[in-house]
Design a protein that fits this description.
- This protein is an all-alpha fold.
- It is 62% helix and 0% strand.
- Helix 2 runs antiparallel to helix 3, helix 3 packs antiparallel against helix 4 and helix 3 packs parallel to helix 5.
- 41% of the residues are buried.
């Protein structure tokens, strides 16, 4: 490491494995998983995505915002300083990024255009591959 650090910007943030991901993959109910793991972004993202699919936009927005804030807390605990890459390819990051994508879709559905634009930029700054993987632009 040089005395000047990484001149290209901060290192990518890679979150630790979220145990809730295994519970969701095993088919457990996202509401039960979120209740047992309230700090889990992926559990809240799953709830938000399910609510969006059922056209429960306001509930989706609330679930997604919770997942987003839980993810921000976890990112900061893992060295993120409010900017820099959050790679989609690192699977434990996907819970936060999914919550962010669900927040964007639900904000768009309720006409919160400023929030949509802010999230669009956040996703692009985090990892352009995330927006593509989430089907948002």
């Amino acid at each position: 490491m040089s005395l000047h650090g990484n001149l290209l910007g901060p290192e990518p943030t890679r979150l630790p494995v979220d145990p809730a991901a295994a519970a969701l993959a095993a088919g457990e109910d996202p509401a039960d998983v979120a209740a047992a793991n309230p700090a889990s972004s992926i559990a809240w993202a799953a709830l938000a995505e399910n609510a969006l699919a059922e056209k429960h936009t306001v509930a989706a927005y609330a679930y997604a915002r919770t997942g987003y804030h839980r993810g921000l807390d976890q990112l900061r605990r893992n060295g993120w300083k409010g900017f820099g890459p959050i790679p989609w390819s690192h699977e434990p990051n996907q819970g936060f990024l999914r919550a962010l994508g669900a927040l964007m879709r639900s904000a768009e559905a309720i006409g919160e255009t400023d929030e949509v634009e802010r999230i669009r930029g956040f996703l692009a700054d985090s990892d352009p591959a995330a927006a593509a993987a989430l089907g948002v632009s």
